[in-house]
Every structure is written in C-alpha cells, then in structure tokens.
Amino acid sequence: MKIVKIIILVLLVAFVGIQFVPTERNQSDIVPVTDFMLVNTVSKDIKNKLQVSCYDCHSNNTQYPWYNKIQPVSWILEGHIKDGKEELNFNEWDLLSSRRKASKLRSIIKQIESSEMPLSSYTLIHKDAKFSDREKKELIEWITQLKDSL
Amino acid sequence: MKNLKIGIAAMLLLVVSFTNAQEKEKMDHSKMKMDKMQDAKAEAVLADYFMVKDALVGDNTKKAAQMGTKLVASLKAFDSSSYTKEQQEELADIIEDATEQAEHIAKNAIDHQREHFKTLSKDITDMVAITGIKNTLYQQFCPMYDRGSAWLSTSNEVRNPYYGSKMLKCGKVQKEINN
Questions:
Q1: Is residue B91, in this structure, part of any structural domain at all?
Q2: Does the distance separating the beta carbons of B94 and A99 come in below 8 Å?
Q3: Host domain of residue B170
Q4: Residue B129 lies in a domain
C-alpha cells in the first residue's frame, strides 16, 4: 500500500511540475495579405469550413480550447500546430509559386478525400470541424477548380 | 610621328583583343567543365527517381522510402549555378517541390508514396526539360490513376508504378524524350 501512495505522490508532483514548463502559443491578430482567403475568391461557406476545420493548425492563429493551458495537453497541441504549419500555412499561401500551390492543393484534396484531415483526434473534440460527405464533395470540387485555374 | 601613333594604337588594340580572347577562352572552358558536372548531378537525381519508381512498381514500400531519402540528398546536392538566371529560378522551384514529395515518399505508406510520386514525376519531367539527359527517356501514362498520371522510364516497356502488381502493364508510352 505504501508503494502505491509513493507512486501517486510522485505522479502528482510531476504533474504539477510540468505545468511550469512554458510552451509557445500560436496567436496573431494580423491576417497577412498573402492569406489564402484574401488572394482567392472563396465563398462564405467554404471560408467558414476552412477556418473551423483547418486554420487552427494551418495558420498563425489558433482558437485554443479552454484546457489548452494544462500540460501535457499544451505540448501535444504545440507539436500538432508546429507540424501543421510546416506542411501548410494558409496565411502564407501567396508566397508559394504556382508549382508549389498546385502540389499543395493536390495534397489537400487527397487528405480530405481519404479523411486523413482533419485529424480524428481533432474532430473528436471539435465536432463541427468534421466534413460531411456532401461538404467533402463540395470542397474537393472547388479546390480542384482552383488547382486547374493555376 | 604619325606612323608611331598609329603603330601604338594598333599594338594596343592587338593587346586588348588578345587578352579579351584569352579571357573568353577561360570562361568557355570553365563553363564547359561546370556543365558536365551539373549534368552528372541531374543524372544522379534521375537515377534516384528511377529507383523510387522501380520500388513502387515492385510494391515495395520500404525500398521506396529508402530511395526517397536518397533522392532528398541528391536533390540537395543539385547545383544550378551554370544555368541562366531564369532557369535557376525555375530549377530552384522544381527542386523545392520535388524535395517535399521525396520527403513524403520517405516516410509514408504506399498509397501516399504513389500520390506524391505523381507530383514528383511532373517535377522531374520539368527538370530534365531544362538540364537535358544522357539517354533516351520515355514518358508513360496511366489513364486510370487519379484522372490520369504520367511518369518517366528508361525503357519503353510499361511497368506501372501507380498500381504495381495489380495492373503491372497497364498504361502506354506517351512521349519519347531525347535530351
């Protein structure tokens, strides 16, 4: 029994301890002129969809959930956002060449088609981020058009 | 007096044109050397691309990933300094894009690898259009994969990297590329 108590105590101390580890926060009020929504003509529906389903990890501004300041959640979120922005940052869209844009759009289509994005761990909490079959179809159609117009 | 002046002028002209010619020769020489070296680097990229392709033809994810990593390295080693400014810009763009595709091939499952191989094939095709090639290549085409997808091969026999053993010989030769 004693050993259980010690383990619990150690875990508790560790949990409290990691709360003091700082994490970088992904927040910005500025939407740069290179933003995907600004350089493309995007319908209100699609704009809203992209914002809710993609921008948290693929832009410079995350709408954090309430529990985001609790470790180790912060770490996990930080990792996802870092990876996400490395792959694709919608805020910096227009910095890409036409070739790079076409590749990115092709990948976006594939990711949506195969339901790999948005991540299931994300849609688990953000129910509204999930695409219905109809939304998927509409999005893919529109992105394909955009790609072909490049 | 007048003759002397003309003589000096003529000598000067001769000296100038001579040094200029020498300069030019030097430049031509260095450029030729560079071109050859670069061709070798473009060929290295091409060789790794074909290794990726062959791995995908053989449905071999692991090998494709390894060759993807190799391709990332040979793309990095590519040096475009002997090309014109315009070509350099386009090559930089191509290399950046191809590198991303190769990186994805290096760390994903086969469906993903094939997806990125499609984009990679376009990049490499555009690259050889600028750098030229040593041996004849064949651009092949599979109408079924992702609304039609092309790839490059050293042989005119079709071996489909998008489907592998599922549809090994499905596709056609679209174009023969000679440098």
A1: yes
A2: yes
A3: 36-177
A4: yes
ipTM for the whole predicted complex goes beyond 0.85: no
Tokens of B48: 């790794």
Distance from CA of B97 to the nearest CA of A (A): 6
Segment B76-131, tens digit of pLDDT: 999 888 899 999 999 999 999 999 999 999 998 999 999 999 999 999 999 999 99
Confirm whether B30 is domain-assigned.
no
Pairing between β-strand B149-153 and β-strand B137-142 as defined by DSSP bridges:
antiparallel
pLDDT 10s per residue in chain A (150 long)? 789 999 999 999 988 888 887 778 888 888 888 999 988 888 999 999 999 999 999 999 888 887 777 888 888 888 889 999 999 999 999 999 999 999 999 999 999 999 999 999 889 888 899 999 999 999 999 999 999 988
Residues in chain B whose Cβ is within 8 Å of chain A: 93-94, 96-97, 100-101, 111, 115-116, 118-119, 123
Give the DSSP per-residue string, B101-153. HHHHHHTS-HHHHHHHHHHHHHHHHHHHHHH--SS-EEEEEESSGGG-EEEEE
Q: What's the rounded Cα separation, in Å, for the pair B176 and B178?
A: 7
